[in-house]
Structures are given as C-alpha cells and as structure tokens.
Design a protein that fits this description.
Elements: E1 2-9, H1 13-26, E2 31-36, E3 41-44, H2 50-53, E4 63-65, E5 73-75, E6 79-87, H3 96-111, E7 116-119, E8 122-125, E9 128-137, E10 141-149, H4 154-157, H5 175-178, H6 189-203, E11 205-208, H7 211-218, E12 227-228
Parallel strand pairs: 1-2, 1-11, 3-4
Antiparallel strand pairs: 2-6, 3-5, 4-12, 6-10, 7-8, 8-9, 9-10
Helix pairs in contact: 1-7, 3-6
Length: 230
C-alpha cells in the first residue's frame, strides 16, 4: 500500500493537528506523520473542557483542542507523535476497535517489546501506560494518532487532573505510578525511531513528503475544528 510520509522535529502540536485535519478532509491518499517533540502544550480531546481537565497551568502554557476525541495530554520536547491518516478503500477498517487492533499490531512489530500491549484502548508496557492515542472516523477516511512518552516530568504532569472516566486497570494510580517512559526500554531515542521507520518501510510503499506540501493543503477551504484556546 502506498503511504505518504512526512517526518519532522519540534513542530508545534497545534500546527501538526491542523495538517492532519486538512489531510483527513481534503486528501484521498494515505499518510503517516512523525513529529519528534513539540513546544510544551496541553492537548484536549474534542469533547473535553479546559476547566475539567486542568488542575493548574501557567498562563504561558498553550492549550490546544484537537479535532478528535479521547483524553487530555501534556506534550513537550520529549513526546514522539505518530499519526496515520488512511483511506478505508485501501485499508478497510470501520470501527474504533478494528483500527486500534491494526495500529497495535503495527506498533508491536515496531517496538519489539514483549510486554507492549493494548489495554482498554491504551498502549501499555506491563500495566503502565506509555502512549496516549485518539481517533477520528468519517465516511471514507480515518485518523489514528498517538503520542509516545519518551520521557516526562512528573511535576509538570500534575497539571492534568485524573480523568473522570479512567480505565479500570489504572486502579486510581497517580500519574507517576501509572505512566512509564520509553527511554526505560530503548538504548536511545534514535534506536526507537530507527525501529519504527524500518517497520514502516517494510510494510508500505513509502513516498517522502515535504512540509510545503502540507502547508499548501492547509490553505485550501475545509472544515477546521482544531483550535488554540490560549
């Protein structure tokens, strides 16, 4: 299957989400976006309310509402973002469960960690979450985007309240007892990225793209629900 691939570093997550929404609504091809790090921000799911999900936040900390559902996440330079925007005619997956199973099987190969698993829609290692993900499904296309925790600051993570609808396996654990960074399982960030890219190139016919391709697409008229709240 043909896959357009855009890889970058330190692209602000708000801009990345704008690109993804444009690709979902305007393009017919299949895409993968890899973004290594972002300026620090809190990203809320489309149905989330800022006052419900944030305990505190610096007035200088951007809050972004994405076009997809899911929970809230604090991102920074240690977050690795991977998104697939795919056409149902090329990869006919129709339900959130089917998409999750496909993405999990792909990441299972890419990470090559025996303890990596999909648990209640979370990517985990053992019983600790290592990545957050969200989806958006429309008639002909869908998005599955994931934010992998290469590392995180436990103190800054306290800006996020515990979710009201937490997965059962969380068992009320605080962030530092519930999350695990990928740096504990790979010799370097480069080894993780190398493994991911090898799996990507082994499974798809890759065509590399430039940022200008996405910038031009974003200028075309389309529905835009990604927003910067502050």
């Amino acid at each position: 299957m043909h896959l357009n691939f855009f890889s970058t570093e330190n692209l602000f997550i708000y801009t990345q989400l704008q690109y993804e929404e444009a690709l979902l609504r305007l393009h017919e091809g299949n895409w993968c976006i890899l973004n290594i790090g972002s300026a620090k921000a809190v990203v809320l799911g489309s149905s989330k309310k800022r006052e419900e999900d944030l305990l505190f936040a610096s007035p200088h900390l951007p809050v972004v509402k994405r076009f997809s559902g899911g929970g809230s996440v604090l991102v920074d330079e240690n977050t690795i973002f991977i998104s697939f925007i795919l056409s149902k005619k090329d990869l006919p997956l129709f339900s959130p469960e089917e998409i999750h199973r496909w993405a999990f099987s792909f990441y299972k190969k890419a990470l090559n960690l025996s303890a990596f698993d999909l648990k209640e829609n979370d990517y985990v290692i053992g019983d600790r979450k290592c990545a957050g993900n969200a989806q958006y499904i429309q008639k002909d296309r869908y998005v599955h985007h994931t934010s992998f925790l290469w590392d995180y600051n436990p103190e800054e993570m306290k800006a996020l309240s515990l979710p009201k609808q937490a997965p059962l396996y969380r068992k009320g654990r605080e962030h530092k007892e519930f999350l695990t960074p990928l740096k504990n399982y790979f010799s370097s960030k480069e080894s993780f990225l190398s493994s991911f890219c090898k799996t990507l190139y082994d499974n798809f016919l890759i065509e590399e793209k430039e940022q200008i391709d996405l910038e031009k697409l974003c200028l075309l008229p389309h529905r835009k629900t990604t927003s910067l709240l502050s």
